[in-house]
Design a protein that fits this description.
446 residues, alpha/beta, FAD/NAD(P)-binding domain, Enolase-like, domain 1, 3 domains, 7-stranded mixed beta sheet, 5-stranded antiparallel beta sheet, 21 strands
Length: 446
């Protein structure tokens, strides 16, 4: 059978674009379908714009500390509309770069939503297209719980482009998205109510990290409400009222942000026309070859991963194309994935939590340190940094590293390389620290 393309990619996010470009670099005829902006969640409505807002909110602390270092900066003025306008300009610039990357690679961008007809055919804008192989890279989308009045809530997508900076807002959730946005708005002077049904924020993280981070959020002024489910959202003129099963009620809220997780973006994809394997949570289930059932259909990125990380999607797609078209034989490894929560304080993690390390390795030895970073020594800022190493006792391998504090993300990247390569605590002890830095604490812990 003669196909229109060697490869069709559905979704022009980070994983899809990388896959398409690599396939095209091997001389394959590739089409990528995307009805929205090119760049996906990370570039357009996720990691990148959110990090820009994180930077904006972090200046508050910088201004506060400046006078201790001899700076007289007067009274800083903040303009939310200017921030959002500049953010949009930067995202538009990146969007154009992604278009150029596809054009320069020889990938045909078809700007319409694609649906499966069969395992080798999709339809878009009333036309059918065929390919030898089809890659699903549609990512994930915000999840909204079934709550009365949930239509009044916004997701992280809309939170990046609010017309006005709210005076008071309620955030539903306790994961990384919830605490990141809570930190951004809290630092910008918004009264933030963070509501979670459980008894502690950041489920899945190390218990010491959860405790330290939650305490830090509260000290920074967040109103953390635990053991409470939001049962109804009522609109009152241009504001909202939030009712909880704990008999609490939050009135005069300007924004309700729903950050209760994300789900695989498979809506209106037509995969019901195929025998595609699904996980219990609705994600597409893939094997080690990224195949999801039919011999011609594959998936990469958030649509099939619990690790919703852009570099994972990129690596999966790149290596898959290398194996298909470049005689590659390398597979992605999911152990010791480093990650960062861009909250305030920032959280960097790599490897096992203490609880999971005990299950996996047996007896472990932990090393902990809490200190005030030097950058705040002459200021009134009392922020603390927390660091924790987890070591498997039998092998002396460092199997977990967790940092809560300024620049945690920058620090964890380097240590993640060492942990991935199997560094022992003895070898870590032999490293010479860079003084004075916060990172040196990780090579001097006793």
């Amino acid at each position: 059978m003669k196909f229109d393309f060697n490869l069709i990619v559905i979704g022009a996010g980070s994983g899809g674009v990388r896959s398409a470009r690599i396939a095209a670099s091997y001389g394959k005829k590739v089409a990528i379908f995307e009805a929205g902006e090119v760049g996906g969640t990370c570039v357009i409505r996720g990691c990148v714009p959110k990090k820009l807002l994180v930077y904006a909110s972090s200046f508050v602390k910088t201004f506060k500390a400046a006078s201790a270092f001899g700076w007289d900066i007067g009274q800083p003025q903040f303009n939310w509309q200017k921030l959002i306008a500049n953010k949009d300009e930067e995202i538009n610039r990146l969007n154009k770069i992604y278009h150029s990357l596809l054009d320069n690679s020889g990938v045909e961008l078809i700007p319409y939503h694609a649906r499966f007809v069969d395992k080798n055919t999709v339809t878009a804008n009333g036309k059918e297209y065929t390919a030898e192989k089809i890659l699903i890279a549609t990512g994930s989308t915000p999840f909204y719980p079934d709550i009365k009045g949930i239509e009044y809530a916004v997701s992280s997508n809309e939170a990046l482009s609010l017309e006005q900076l709210p005076k008071e807002m309620t955030i539903m959730g306790a994961g990384y998205i919830a605490v990141e946005f809570a930190s951004i708005f809290n630092s910008l002077g918004v009264k933030v109510n963070l509501v979670y049904r459980g008894d502690k924020l950041l489920r899945g993280f190390d218990q010491d990290v959860r405790n330290f981070a939650q305490e830090s959020f509260i000290k920074n002024g967040m109103n953390v409400i635990l053991n409470s489910n939001i049962i109804e959202i009522k609109k009152d003129d241009n504001q909202f009222e939030v009712l909880m099963d704990s008999d609490m009620c939050l009135k005069k809220q300007d924004v309700i942000l729903c950050a209760t997780g994300r789900i695989a973006n498979t809506h209106n994809l037509g995969i019901e026309n195929l025998q595609v394997n699904r996980k219990y949570n609705g994600q597409i289930q893939v094997d080690s070859e990224q195949n999801c059932g039919p011999d011609s259909v594959f998936a990469v990125g958030d649509v099939c991963n619990n690790d919703n990380l852009t570099p994972v999607a990129i690596k999966e797609g790149n290596l898959l194309m290398d194996r298909w078209y470049g005689n590659g034989n390398t597979y992605i490894e999911y152990d010791y994935l480093p990650s960062t929560v861009f909250s305030q304080p920032e959280i960097g993690s790599c490897g096992f939590t203490e609880e999971l390390a005990q299950e996996h390795f047996g007896e472990v030895v932990t090393y902990k340190s809490t200190f005030r970073a030097m950058k705040y020594a002459m200021t009134d800022i009392q922020d603390q940094t927390f660091m924790k190493l987890i070591v498997a006792k039998d092998s002396d391998l460092v199997v977990g590293c967790h940092i809560v504090g300024a620049d945690a993300g920058e620090m964890i990247q380097g240590f993640a390389v060492a942990i991935k390569q199997g560094i022992t605590k003895e070898k870590l002890n032999q490293c010479i620290g860079i003084h004075p830095t916060s990172a040196e604490e990780l090579v001097t812990m006793k």
